[in-house]
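Re: that chain you flagged

S.,

Sorry for the slow reply, it's been a week of failed gels. I finally had a moment to sit down with the sequence you sent. For the record, here it is as I used it:
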Amino acid sequence: MPESALREAAQNLLRPARTTQARPSGASTKGGRLAAIDALRLLAAVAVAAYHYVGTPTPRFWGENHDLPQAAPLLHAVSGYGWLGVEAFFLISGFVICMSCWGRTPAQFAVSRIARLFPLYWAVVLIVVVMGTVAVLVGQRSGAPTDLRTTLGNLTMIPGPLGVDFTAGVAWTLWVEARFYLLMGALLLIGLTYLRVVAFGFLWLVLASISRELNSTVLDELLLSQYAGLFVTGIACYLMHRFGPNLLLWLLTGFAWCYTLTVLDDRVATHPTSDWGASAAVLTGFLVLLAVAGLSRLRHLQWRTFVYAGALTYPFYLVHQSVGIPVARGVLKAAPALGLLPAIALGLLFSLLLAATLNRQVDRRLGPLLRRHLTTALDPAPAELRPRRQRGAAPRALAPAKAGPAGD
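Prediction finished late last night. Pasting the structure tokens below so you have them in one place:
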């Protein structure tokens, strides 16, 4: 291939596609975060935490002398549906990631995802490993694998495909998210426009349906057939937020949601205490909340408390199970007279405080640093020109886009 053709291909990779096929609504062109979406992200995280702490059906989860269904029967029954918070996260992710992609190049999108996810994830993996190692040294059983091979596999964020266990129990969802990012990255390479995103949504659902019909493990892994409907619904909600509702987007939303509720039965089957009808109703209720947050006047909400809560969601989600539950068990073992529910409350409080610390010391410091260096690395200066470039300055072609939506 001629050098000129290679140079043109590289420039196309770094240049955002034009997106002028529909008139965007004013609210979506102003930038900034959507505080209401941040609040929904926190709600999803609380639901997952409630399931892991209070709603788990595992017998003697907190020990033989602590029967959770007996201690808090109503809370236990309601929290048993908290696993749907994971589905809610994927639904929100469709909205947020589509927003994050708009107006960015594939390189900018990749940098934003890496800088957002990896520093906090690395910190949590190391914290869990250190806690597990200390537990073994003092003669306690470690709940997480701490050997070097497993730790190295987990630092890649894809331990499952590498054949090792997850150090942080909830990290399996990050691998699902990563494959969604790859699909959106492929769409960015083609060029992000309104009609292309709509076509992408319909095509994804059809191909995912075919993969289920063929019982193809490979296609299921690539097309995320279990969760495709959630991501596409979120994407459709963002398109309504940006371009306004219309018949085509309602059809996409309806198709995606019918798909979602149909395949939801597979997930319900892995949670024997849950009912499909109740699960479908809870998840549909969350979709209504997302639509209200993105399409009503709430999209103009700018409460800093919600924005900060959204910033804590990711670190809290990562630590609440692998760190918070061992802490709660330790409190319960050291002070059994305290009672089960107070010990659970202390475990959750510790997780929240640790999340705030990680947000301040890791996310706010290492995230921007990693983003800046990755941006520079994507367009390095030739050796003879390096002294002329300002130290640490980002190349103009790859300067990060304005701070995007919740989760960006």
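What I noticed first: The chain has a mean pLDDT of 85.

Talk soon,
D.
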